[in-house]
Design goal:
Length: about 400
């Protein structure tokens, strides 16, 4: 028999739902969408105490609104009372969102004389058939947190935000997703005004996922910074597994347009004839990501039955792994270090096989104009020489997948 506390406890992931409305007509465009996470609002247990049949309905049209309803509310007993279900939302939604007047909200959307238009400058467009939004960071990005605008002015000015919209036939816009990036200094005496851009958050709304928007949005953002002479490197902060896959696929596709990368030979990499530094600089990629892509490209043309060639390839990959984890590996005994490198290499090779197969399937789907590919196979292992982490999701991830959730 459930305890009294359990009887009044509600799963926040089930109680909270989101609906999206046309900024012009006020009509629902997507409804009943559950959040992926609610612990930033309602604690690690993702539970709300004090209600039965609780519904917290978030409405968004770039003009958010929220209302909460319930069948029963728990009586106050001593110091124990029902949680204020709206209070956690107040920090992340404008004051106007809490009017509770649904009819008034719809009438407001329908009566606006000036239709909503996206802020900022148009960077690119693509055809695809198929404080107003910060709450989405908490509900759909694991470990995500809104940008702290209380920081120093100079720091706030280094944030850059890209919005992705669908332009509708009536010249109105539907919000699809967004991406935030931060410009760090790139220390170089010869060119002191250079920056390193770090992608921090990346989100496509659930109703637009699995339609290729994430890939094209990512490509457009990367191209924007490739065209910027002041940006030296484009990095990603703590990506989720799904976003890491998206990044790998799109980076490989982009690098594959360079004949030197496409036709790279194992012997040239072993002899250091291949211009790694120059090509990495052109691609504005961090060292680890570029070398992983290079290793995947080499693996595609590798004859694993050729023992000499296969050994050379393994040495290249293990050399990179050792360099990146030298402090940890140096603490191990020689035989243990060799075993750990072998184990890590096997994980890396398995993951490269998975990614290359995924890219092959994706290219077939794109050629056939398949709009909704199936979910990607799970990433085989994190490339790490540390002991296995807990299976419980961490809260360090800052980037959410845009396409393959």
């Amino acid at each position: 028999m459930a305890s009294a506390a359990e009887a009044w406890s509600v799963d926040a992931n089930e109680a909270v739902t989101l609906s999206f409305y046309s900024p012009k007509t006020g009509e629902e465009t997507a409804t009943g969408i559950p959040p992926t996470f609610t612990y930033p609002l309602y604690g690690d247990a993702q539970a709300i105490y004090g209600y039965k049949d609780l519904m917290v309905h978030l409405k968004d049209s770039m003009e958010p609104a929220v209302e909460a309803t319930w069948a029963e509310k728990a009586p106050e007993i001593g110091d124990v009372e029902a949680e204020d279900v709206l209070r956690p939302l107040e920090e992340h939604l404008p004051y106007s969102a809490f009017s509770g007047d649904h009819d008034g909200y719809i009438k407001y959307l329908q009566s606006r004389e000036v239709p909503f238009r996206p802020p900022g400058e148009l960077q690119t467009t693509f055809d695809h058939n198929g404080r107003r939004f910060e709450i989405l960071v908490l509900l759909y990005i694991e470990g995500g947190s809104p940008i702290d605008l209380n920081d120093e002015v100079w720091s706030n000015q280094r944030w850059e935000v890209f919005f992705l919209y669908e332009k509708l036939l009536d010249d109105t816009y539907a919000f699809i997703g967004y991406c935030t990036l931060y410009r760090w200094y790139f220390f170089d005496k010869a060119t002191p005004d250079q920056t390193r851009v770090r992608l921090s958050q990346f989100l496509i709304l659930p109703q637009y996922q699995r339609e290729g928007h994430g890939s094209r949005f990512y490509d457009a953002i990367i191209q924007y910074y490739l065209d910027s002479p002041k940006v030296r490197e484009i990095t990603v902060g703590d990506p989720s597994e799904e976003f890491a896959d998206l990044r790998d696929r799109r980076d490989m596709l982009r690098l594959g347009k360079d004949p030197d990368f496409l036709n790279v030979k194992l012997a040239d990499v072993m002899s250091k004839k291949f211009p790694i530094k120059e090509m990495r600089a052109r691609a504005k990629m961090p060292e680890r990501q570029f070398l992983r892509c290079l290793e995947m490209q080499l693996f595609q043309g590798l004859n694993v039955k050729d023992k000499k060639q296969y050994k050379q390839y393994r040495l290249i990959v293990k050399g990179r792994i050792y360099k990146q984890h030298s402090d940890l590996l140096a603490q191990l005994e020689r035989l243990e270090r060799i075993d750990k490198l072998d184990e890590t290499y096997r994980h890396v090779e398995d993951d490269y096989q998975r990614l290359l197969l995924l890219m092959k399937k994706s290219s077939v789907q794109e050629a056939g104009e398949v709009d909704k590919p199936g979910k990607a196979p799970k990433r085989i292992a994190q490339e790490s020489v540390a002991t296995a982490a807990s299976s419980r999701p961490t809260k360090k991830v800052r980037v959410q997948d845009a396409e393959d959730l």
